[in-house]
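Service request form, structural biology core

Requester: graduate student, group of Dr. S.
Request type: structure prediction, single chain
Budget code: on file
Notes: please return the result as structure tokens.

Sequence provided:
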Amino acid sequence: MKKKQILILVLILLSFSCKKGSTPAPVDPPVAPPTYSFSDLKVNGTFNGFTYYGLNNAPVVKITFSSPISASSVAGNITLTDGSGNSATFVSSLENNDNTVVVTPSTLQPITKYTLTVNTGLLSKTGNKLQSSISVTLVTAVDDTDKFARISDEELLTLVQKQTFKYFWDFGHPTSGLARERNSSGNTVTSGGSGFGIMAMVAGVSRNFVSRAEGLARMQKIVAFLKTADRFHGAYPHWLDGNTGKVIPFSTKDNGGDLVETSFLMAGLITARQYFNGADAAETALRADINSIYNSVEWSWYRKDNGNVLYWHWSPNYNWDMNLPIKGWNESLITYVMAASSPTFSIPKSVYDQGWAQNGAMKNGNSYYGVQLPLGSANGGPLFFEHYSFLGINPMGLSDAYANYETQTKAHTLINYNYCKANPLSYYGYSENCWGLTASDIPNGYTASSPSNDVGVIAPTAALASFPYTPTESMQALKYFYYKLGNKLWGDYGFYDSFSLHQQWFASSTLAIDQGPIIVMIENYRTKLIWNLFMSAPEVKTGMKNLSFAGPNL
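Core staff response, request fulfilled:
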């Protein structure tokens, strides 16, 4: 009986265990294979995250782990590559009871980014894998040796002017004589950049880089071309075909007159007119042709129905669709000066006051990096604001109702310099010797760099075109650019457009609007030649006085 009861109980239990939906017995989870982990990193004895700038060419990298490392697994699981993926050689060793791998690269190249990678295949002595891979960025420093023999400061200034002059002389368009937009522009010539180039040629003739006869012949070629090139109510387009003189659209609707670029061109032509002042037939004819071109610009028409502001663009297809009034503070002061100085299509002072100065709204008055800024946006904006107009206009001692322009130009430049020296965004390479934010090429693009738009790119034209404002700081920059970076930054036409030590990038480009101010402003610093010529023009004196400017050069 007892056995029978036990048998029934077993059968009952079996029936319950076989019911649908019953929970199976729990299964133990799979056990993860054991791993070890990263503990510490030192590069040349310090820890600074996983990115290191300004390293010597043989830095010592020590990576410490939670377990001793198998020496045989280091090969193939620790790699060092440059930005192109090429392997760099190194030696490795173990220390700290084999918990620390010491990686010492062979001689690395300067201003180059390397990536040190540790893969999970790096095994501990017990055969365990590394929990997570590690990547360390190593950026080497500038090679501090001089790249060229030292010469005197005056010789260096002359060398920079002479080499940069080649952009406009040797690389000038063969048919038109005008300046190509950049060193890869083919037949595309730039009206504004050509104005800068004309001033540069005057400086070049004055310094005997070419003869006066050669300079005159080039100017005759330029003026003959401009007399037949496309114009729109007297204004030239931003870009022209250097062979045909036909407009090349800067953008879809920007295919007509560009008044600001035209003003840069006119300032250059007036400067050349004042320089080529001989009584002979050739120079007399050149001056007459320049007067005809300047007097044909319908500055007042660009007020758009007699409004109290000038407009930047007009298109024969799109009329005023660009709708960009020229308001200060920016690079366009010269536009209002050339318009007010016109003997034929002048503008009244009200257009300057209400349009450009916005009845005083362009004033600033705040201080940045210890310097008070009279005009413009916070921190001053890109430095070309203080270059383009002042290639011809001498700001020294110049003032009107809105500012003292000597104070303005110097303040803006010092703010730019002090910002780069302070380097609030911690870009590698910025210093009292390496400074200057303005419009330039950047990696994969172009931007107007400034303290408010800082992408880590320095443009030599920013500091070098500021010589009249900050001679000491500009000379520091020039010597650094030439002697320390010259093997990467100095080319056939002077300094390349821009560079970033932080990104290990150097432009291969040269641009007319950046090369021109370097020559011209260095010349103004040395002799005031271009300032004196432009400011000697009787129309300019009259126009600026009509706008209520005052100063020793008026």
